[in-house]
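TL;DR need structure tokens for one chain.
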Amino acid sequence: MKKIIIKTIGFLTITLLISSCAKKALDRTNPLDPQNPKKANISGKTYDSVTNVAISDVSVSIVSSDSKTVTTLSSSTGNYSYTDLAPGIYYLHATKIGYTDKNQTDVQLKSEADNIYDLSLDAVVPTTTTTTTTDTTSSNKILDSLLKGSYSEEVNYILSLNNSPYNVTDNVSFINYYEGRTTLTIEPGVIIKFAASYHFIVDCPVTANGTSSNPIKFTSGKSAPTANDYQEIKFGDSFNKTTTILNYIIFEYGSIQNIYGNSNSKMTNCTFTNYNSSYPTLFTNGEVKNCNFQKTGSSVFIAVGSPIISYCNITGEIETFLGAGQYKINYCNLTKGTGTILTNKASYTIDVTNNWWGTIDSSTIQNYIDSSYYGAGIVNYSPYASSLISTAGPQ
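>> reply
TL;DR here they are.
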């Protein structure tokens, strides 16, 4: 009997030890260090530095010493938290449109402890827009927050941060009847929301100059936004006479974006995401630099003109039309979507050198390029990058 009791106790002891070890193994769920069983927690509140009022929907990222990052949004009461982190030194980065970015360095997380770091954000103070009046523009006109119908006066229309967000409640057109005397300026931080499936057409010179901390945003006004919530966004006239300047703009939940302009036009640091169209982004002339295009199908379409595209992240297919000029694509990260990466129909010799194609195998890269259309020119892709280009995308 004693031997049976001893054996039973020994068996139970071994079983408990195995269960305990298995539980410890399962507890290793730290997203920044899965192999570290020790845990640290961090929490805090995001609030306005002047009013002390809690700020919701602040993007709070925590970055480890080896640059691993996780991100969350603050709650309706401004609270954020992370659990099961490895003890160590981190830094916090908080961002929200309308506020300057907040960086908190030397954040030391101790194991088995609640580490509290509140983040105060400074609201952006709108600067007074001063536009030099020339003989091509008689005056400035700041538009109210409700946008609908046609705008064709001989003025410089302004979408101001003070009146943001702007709500598009019908089709909107800025019409250039006066050969450059109608212009549009969009201030940094302005948000344009579409109530339904409307278009936003700008057939006049436009300057939409956002910043990294205060980008301009075109987005859906629906509570549960999805791709294709609104129709075409078009900048510049179809004859490529106007100058189009776009910088730090986020285009999301739309369908197609047509970017026309002359050779002086520039689109930099822009992001296209959560959109849906056969040809979502069309370019004509000018410079396209440090932009993100995120789509698994057709991502970029070059119909006419000769845009110079560089330092961009492009996911999805790049397509060209028979009338396309001698465009260039260089120093970009190109990622295959559902089809090829580049379908070329232009008749010129095309320079797509120094790009990262996700591989260094030349035969694979060749398969990513379709230049089989009758009359299509040669596509030069070599030399190509040997690794991901870190300076691509918004800077």
